[in-house]
Design a protein that fits this description.
The structure is a homotrimer. With about 675 residues, chain A is an alpha/beta fold. The first copy, chain A, is built from 17 helices and 27 strands. In chain A, strands 12, 13, 14, 15, 16, 17, 18, 19, 20, 21 and 22 form an eleven-stranded mixed beta sheet that branches. A six-stranded parallel beta sheet of chain A has the order 7-4-3-2-1-11. Chain A has a five-stranded antiparallel beta sheet with strand order 23-24-27-25-26. In chain A, strand 20 and strand 21 (about 580-585) form a beta hairpin. Chains in contact: A-B, A-C, B-C. At the A-C interface, strand 6 and strand 16 of A face helix 2 and helix 4 of C. Chains A, B, C: This is Beta-galactosidase. Chains A, B, C: It comes from Saccharibacillus sacchari.
């Protein structure tokens, strides 16, 4: 439970009343009550208000705000306000301003605008975090501490360049080690002194959208940039802990956000929280996967849904309304995947600047007689009635999908063999095969304990870090099922190719040798011809993008290419290794093939769907102290029907359900076995 | 009449003989005579020639040029040559160079290249205007003074930044007022000192093509930039007036040019002039609308067509020839909409640099035996024969279409709800409904006298400036018909939302409340279902882009949505207010619907077409001292037929016309009632 | 023969063992033997290794490398290593870094990164070339000297700006001459001092992708930039010659590479060499044309194929494998067009940085049991067996296609009449008509001796340099056939229009006057209507893009436009001039029309195909001491059949061939008349 002061699913969101007057604020408080809102995130962007100059702090407004919320029965998630530096700071300490990838020094403006290696920013952000912690450490309203906001971006200033050199010296020890790691004898890049190293950006090694002449350098800069921001977070985190040792400290993450290695970040967070803004055409399975990633950051611990919009966004090209019922449906989807809070951006709309057309619980009209407010209130009532029943429950899973940020960076920095390869899309294709059949999967990191799982799927495991191959071998040896794909086992953690034959360190486990990698044009396809049957798979399927030309070395060929000069070569292999099996998918297959393949892998391990449901009806399971909760969510606009194998009660309305069961369009059921 | 020295439609254009030799110039003069050319715009880009250094002026070449033109019977439109600074000036006074939106200091090159807040530019441009005025104040050839050329562009240098702060201090008085106007408590933007404010550009608040994090700041910069250039214009204007109090001073505008608030500029101009360069796929109705905007800048006063190409342009991707007859047709279209001059860019083609493939009266071949020259000469003869009959006539109109530059800036800086909204396209859709039926419309500003009109149409009146709502209420109260659309009444002049319910200050007049605004994807459509009939409208029509979900508060629902969860909500409403009616169009309808709706609004006010003509045949009316002239223009390549209700004489050939009347393809008739 | 030490087609490629260890290098040597590799290009990017600081040189590694290669029987193409400066140099002598077209100073990174006017770069590159020449002048392994690598790019720094002014002073003598050449009275650009001139880039005269406000300035900068790099080449070349007077010195060119005027460069090269990287959809006729251009640079002398990939590239979006047989086929295509070497990039793959996925003779797996290595070895064996038979043979041709770099620059810098005009595509259209019929053509320069040819084709001869018109007139007068097209004869070498009627100086030769030039939209077409018959041409054909409206002045009209207001005007003319004929093609025709037209021109001159072959089967002829070799290359994947008129022996396998002859898919035959 995040806080025993509020033993229920927190309900609320971002609230910035410093933008309006007291009268409006009082009206807000009245409406919070109406809507069942019990937590407000405050002080996210008020640094300039809190600190009008180097030496003056002014928290009176915040005292009043927090007190008035508390008096109203609304708890507080207290932000540290450091996500946008004040204008005076940019003017007097220009080192706080970032330099962009084109080497351009920024001017004051926007947000998330501070250089993470700026001495001034580090000093002032640390100081204000300390001031806030000291002042509010005992305030009964404060349940969670929220450091900065949506960390992201990058900087290429001189301070970053110098800090990068220090970071490199710590990583490599000697310049010779660095030269080796970066293969600097290529293109005459040999460095003789740390000070010769410059940041890789559009003025040095980068060009175009995502291209680098030296992947190793770029990879280290990506690590360094993620670490630099993490340092900023840790500075504030430490100040809070100094004053409030038992505090719950978080910062709001952003799902599959490329720039920051969230597995590393999560180690420094007391609870994971994140902002869920599906684009207007984002598949619901993708949102589900993002929730699972966030849950996976701390090995299955519940997380906070820190932000979602009640209806519209404003930064999409076309910002359509959430249709009636969708806000409730997606809120429960978060809970169904491990969230213990449902929070919005934002509680009231701004009147000026770029987010004024972003949806809010309280719209510009200012009163409660709106569709959006009615839907919010209805959900508030439901969450109140659920109480603490679901809190702290876990999602049991026997399938792990391996995801790795550094691998993501490396795969997509690669020059060749194809620009079509998108790492997260590949992860999603495999995830979706489980999702569509209501088989629960965890997203795991290379550091996770694989022994918790029967199946580990690792699409495009391009970079094999030290020890990983051994760990995977041991997992399979003991009976685990492992699957990986084309473009795996190619490089080490410095993006240096492991010579001696692809897939490098995974070759022994997989029992294959990949001789060549063909890249297909977008309109080209090859065929997968199944040898006999693999579960329900037989006959031919399409594949494309990349096609490995491989030779088996102990593995069995389950399917072959059907076209081109490598027709008849293996495209799907299985290698018996110890008590387990290692699969290799040598090309990018159509979804149907993957679905059949993973169904069979599950069947081999006796992993069954939670329920069999029609398309668009999602099911997850949370378990707490042996009690099981099935979440059934109908993403279709129309009613759907599915079969229940036992007797259940729907926690949301007390209905008893069994046998052939209906669920209304966009409705949610939380089923508990009838006693 | 622009000048009683030349009591006819001026005919001529830009002439830059400093690019070639005397012999060629003498040949030009001979050919001007042949073509009936009686005015030449000179000295547009000759600053470097006129002033070889800080202290030296050299006007001998210009004396000779003007004298030789005058001796030839050709009058002069005398430019001040300040549209491109000399290279020596850029070298010795680098503050004349602009800094672009990416913060890059420009080098010498191009044209329209001077920073409008450069002290050196202001000094030197003022000085040369004074020198020219003094020198040519009594020259009998000079009819019009032409300041600079096609003002435009923007600058983000330090001088502009400082000037912006001064401009803001004048606008807001205190920093607190500015903070309020810009809603700076959003994203921690509070300013404590004027010097903390920086220019909004791609290094601060802007990104992408047209996006800003702080619309209020960007809006003020747009105002400031327009004002800064206007200051430059006014400096030169004042110098000319000092020496030539009765001079006619202008600068050439560019129609729907976004950067400059021409309504404000026109107040400082003795006559409006503009350059008409329809793109190759520009609808003729759009060109007509642009002429009407130019006429509207000074409340219906005739304007100068300062530039058009005799045939080709050069800056289009594909520069096709004007087909035979088109140059004459489009020249008369200008006159038909209020032009009292027909002028070309250019009289002779350059041989070098980027405009050498732009069409000219005298082509590179250098003689008169070309199709283009023959067409120009024929038109010259006709204009000579027309004499002063049409000069100074006006276009009577009972329909006003409200257009506002600041609204344009604000609408298209908005972050959400849709990127698809283009303000001028919306204006054009409504304009076209009148145009296609030969109903004359004026483009009016928020400062215009609405009592001159029976109908005011104000599409997307997003920003409602102080006093405008009252003015519109008063207009309707007295019997006027007002129509506005979705995304109206939302913000004040600082782009702050008027809370309490959309459409804000227009809510009372329109009798509605807009609860939500849905944004549709480009391929999505909703339906307009007409309740009964509205004139000829009945049944269903398509709409899209934005869909307001609105409630009537006194208004009558004339049509409803036919699809989606808001099916049955009003999409067209009418509110009786005093003696008049206020209409609200809640979505973006197909053109047919608008045509029918506006036809009915006209019918209700007994506004009839000038003539009923087939598609592509445009009609306007100019009136002078009670005498009416009907311009009939056939934009089709083939002959068309229309019905005349009385007896007319075609001024262009003396033909008597009545009843069923033919007009040849691309032909023009100017009809005067037979006496 | 390039070297009598190795009297055969050189076989080898780039080799950079400084990236790996000695053991790997020894394995490489073993495999070179297996593959028949006899030359390795070394030291291309090893500057940082060779020179760790200003005063220290370290060539021991290179001594060992060259010695070990030589001991192994592998010769050396010795590069000077100056294609990428060391990091220490960038740090200590920042003038070596380039400034890009946006005025941004680069940082250390990438390659081909040195400012060509940097004093430090010129000094250090000259010095190291001298050191290398001195050290290896007598080494028996060294056959060819390879200066730098793939010169290209541009720089806009202050040193370049100053050097540009000096270059201009040398070109024009006086500022008045420069002002005249650039037509600076346009847009007030008059220069009074050399120091007022700035480099034309995106901060001054350029914008967008390829646009300039002053074509004359941009053209001179393109010349200057090509010359600046050539100066760098010449500095190194001179140092080598100083020590090794009989050396063969080259630098690797890149076919139709726009930035450098290779005709000028070739004058300074002992042998032309180039890198052939067809994109994945490059037509084989385009590759053939590029080989012919490279051969044409030195009037038909054999050239070196310095680089090609054994299989994959890495910098394409989709890097597909070369299908079996294609590497051999394309290698022989190079030889068939004049190459006397077959060399690869690269002999072994890197393990790190951006080219690690580029194909190599030795793949990452490191052994010889790969498809690629087998194909390389097989070709090595064949080339060994061919010995010196083909060396130094020439390709006889009676057709010249005129190509000119400055014309290329000028055509594509033009503002108007169309953006659709691509000079090389036009050259290729005409080339392809000859190619498809196995009629051998040379690519010639304006300086070539036209009297070697019966037909000169000069598509889009926009810029007519001094003396060229006379030279062409003399060619035709004596009986030659000349053909040119629309957009020819327009400007002089400063991009100034030749007034008095297009096509300017070519008007007399062609007997026409072009009055207007219409530009068509991409989806628009006109028709060519043939008057009677021209060889096999009759009836109607399509044309588009540009359409000249022309009048004959002595020429005969062979075909007319079939559409638009200029229907009936000439679109193809022929002018008898002296003993010859001059053709003018006034629009851009479909390929079929060109094929028919050029077939007829050949027929008139009794120029016959080498062989008649089906589509996709290419034929060329090399001749040496009267001995003829026919190269027959089947680019189809399937077997093809053609007719031989005599008895031949296939040099590649000794087969006797005559009459109806088969050639396997992707196979090559080298036919010598049976004796």
């Amino acid at each position: 439970m995040i806080s025993n002061k509020l033993p229920k699913i927190f309900y609320g969101g971002d609230y910035n009343p410093e933008q309006w007057d007291q009268e409006t604020h009082r009206e807000d408080l009245r409406m919070f009550k109406l809507a069942g809102i019990d937590i407000a995130t405050v002080n996210v962007f008020a640094w300039a208000l809190n600190q009008p100059d180097e030496t003056t702090y002014n928290f009176e407004w915040l005292d009043e705000l927090i007190d008035s919320l508390h008096a109203n029965g609304t708890y507080v998630c207290l932000a540290t306000s450091t996500a946008a530096h004040p204008a005076w700071m940019a003017k007097r300490y220009p080192d706080v301003l970032r330099t962009d990838a084109d080497g351009r020094k920024r001017k004051f403006g926007g947000r998330h605008n501070s250089c993470p290696n700026s001495p001034a920013y580090r000093k002032f952000s640390k100081d204000i975090a300390a001031k806030l912690a000291e002042r509010y450490k005992d305030h009964p309203a404060v349940l969670v501490w929220h450091v900065s906001n949506e960390y992201g971006g990058d900087c290429y200033c001189e301070n970053c360049e110098k800090a990068f050199r220090v970071w490199l010296r710590e990583r490599y020890g000697t310049i010779e080690q660095l030269n080796r790691a970066w293969n600097t004898n290529f293109w005459g890049h040999t460095f003789y002194d740390w000070d010769e190293i410059v940041v890789p950006n559009n003025l040095s090694e980068h060009w175009g959208d995502n291209n680098s002449t030296f992947q190793g350098i770029s990879l280290d800069y990506a690590r360094f940039n993620s670490d630099s921001m993490l340092e900023c977070y840790k500075l504030e985190h430490a100040e809070i802990k100094k004053h409030v040792p038992n505090s719950v400290v978080t910062t709001n993450l952003m799902g599959f956000f490329k720039q920051l290695d969230y597995f590393k970040w999560a180690k420094e967070m007391d609870i994971v929280s994140w902002d869920n803004y599906p684009g207007l055409q984002t598949p619901v399975s993708y949102t589900a996967m993002a929730h699972d990633l966030m849950r996976g950051l701390k090995d299955g611990d519940p997380f906070m849904l820190m932000e979602q919009t009640p209806s519209q966004q404003n930064w999409q090209p076309y910002n359509s309304l959430k249709r009636p019922g969708v806000m409730r449906l997606w809120s429960y989807q978060a809970v169904a995947h491990g969230a213990d809070t449902v929070m919005f951006f934002q509680l009231r709309r701004s009147v000026g600047a770029c987010e004024k057309y972003h949806g809010a619980v309280i719209e510009h009209v200012g009163h409660e007689n709106t569709r959006v407010f009615r839907e919010v209130s209805e959900l508030g009532r439901e969450l109140g009635e659920l109480g603490d029943r679901l809190l702290d429950s876990r999602l049991p899973s026997r399938v792990g999908i391996l995801f790795d940020w550094e691998n993501w960076w490396a795969v997509e920095k690669s020059s060749g063999p194809t620009v079509a390869l998108n790492y997260v899309d590949q992860i999603h294709k495999y995830y979706k095969s489980f999702y569509d059949r209501n088989v629960q999967a965890d997203i795991v990191s290379v550091d996770s304990d694989f022994s918790n799982y029967d199946i580990i799927v690792a699409p495009v495991l391009y970079m094999v870090k030290p020890g990983l191959a051994d760990k995977l071998e041991s997992f399979v040896e003991k009976g685990g099922t492992f699957l990986t794909t084309f473009f795996s086992g190619i490089v080490d953690e410095s993006d240096r190719v492991k010579t001696g034959g692809y897939p490098g360190e995974l070759r022994k486990l997989l029992g294959i040798w990949v001789e060549e990698i063909d890249a297909l044009f977008p309109d080209m396809r090859n065929k997968i011809v199944v040898n006999g049957e693999i579960g329900n798979l037989k006959g031919e399927y399409e594949c494309g993008m990349l096609c490995d030309l491989l030779h088996t070395e102990g593995a069995e060929t389950l399917a072959e290419y059907g076209e081109d000069f490598y027709k008849g070569m293996p495209v799907l292999t299985r290698h018996s290794f110890g008590k387990g099996q290692a699969y290799y998918v040598a090309s990018d297959p159509e979804q149907t093939f993957l679905n059949g393949l993973l169904e069979q892998l599950c069947a081999d391990k006796d992993i069954q769907p939670l329920l069999n449901t029609p398309e668009g009806v999602e099911v997850t399971q949370r378990v707490k102290d042996g009690e099981e909760f099935l979440f059934v969510m109908n993403h279709n606009a129309e009613v759907s029907t599915y079969e229940l194998g036992g007797n259940y009660v729907n926690l949301l309305n007390g209905d008893s359900l069994s046998g052939s069961t209906q669920i209304a369009g966009r409705d949610v059921q939380i089923l508990s076995p009838a006693k």
